[in-house]
Specification:
Elements lengths: L5 H26 L2 E2 L5 E6 L7 E2 L12 E3 L5 E5 L4 E7 L1 E2 L3 E6 L2 E5 L8 E3 L2 H5 L6 E6 L2 E11 L5 E9 L3 H25 L1
Parallel strand pairs: 1-5, 2-4
Antiparallel strand pairs: 2-3, 2-13, 5-12, 6-11, 6-13, 7-10, 8-9, 8-12
Length: 196
């Protein structure tokens, strides 16, 4: 029977446990969804109908206006507070695409149907104002979201588009802002009368 060196055995066991821990960490990291911010335009990449949109990193041309950033891989997670929010999806480049948005597999809505042939290039602001480029705005109630976007129509089988989540200010926040503005205007009028 061969003698087993105790130190060799300990080293092998440590190597196995470290390798298993690394594998577990890699699997759990890969399965996590990406948390996104609000009030930010995110550019995403899409392909054929029925394929979930993904990150634009290394695949997309940045928007000409410089007002967006590349989305991480989907699904995109975020929390909507009590006032609700709006999700906006905006196609770009060549027109004809249409998208559907899902929260945990439940349809939130579809963007507008448009003819194939429009072209707003990578100019996000021009795309927003172009009626021949698909877009959609969907109300989101308070809660946690795990967003996936799919191409419903993809005449070119590849492309890039944008989305963003904009919280709706709470009524108390709006009233507070109006009251603060009114106080500031009142103080300005008093100073102006004293000067005159």
């Amino acid at each position: 029977m061969e003698k087993i060196n105790l130190m060799t055995l300990i080293k092998k066991l440590l190597a196995i446990s470290v390798g298993a821990a690394s594998l577990t960490l890699a699997i759990s990291t890969e399965a996590q969804a990406a948390v996104i911010g609000k009030n930010i335009w995110y550019q995403f990449f899409f392909e054929d109908v029925g394929v979930a949109a993904s990150s634009c990193v290394g695949l997309c041309e940045p928007d000409a206006d410089g007002i967006s950033e590349y989305a991480p891989d989907s699904p995109w997670e975020f929390v909507v507070d009590g006032g609700g929010a709006f999700l906006t999806i905006q196609d770009a480049f060549l027109g004809g695409d249409q998208f559907s948005a899902y929260n945990n597999g439940v349809l939130l809505g579809k963007t507008s149907t448009v003819p194939t042939g429009g072209d707003c290039s990578n100019d996000l602001l021009a795309c927003i104002s172009d009626p021949e480029i698909s877009q959609g705005k969907f109300f989101l109630a308070a809660g946690s979201y795990s967003l996936d976007i799919f191409a419903e129509v993809s005449p070119f089988n590849v492309g890039a588009a944008f989305f963003r989540v904009d919280p709706i200010p709470e009524p108390t926040t709006i009233l507070g802002t109006l009251a603060f503005s009114a106080l500031g205007a009142g103080a300005w009028l008093k100073r102006r009368k004293k000067i005159a």
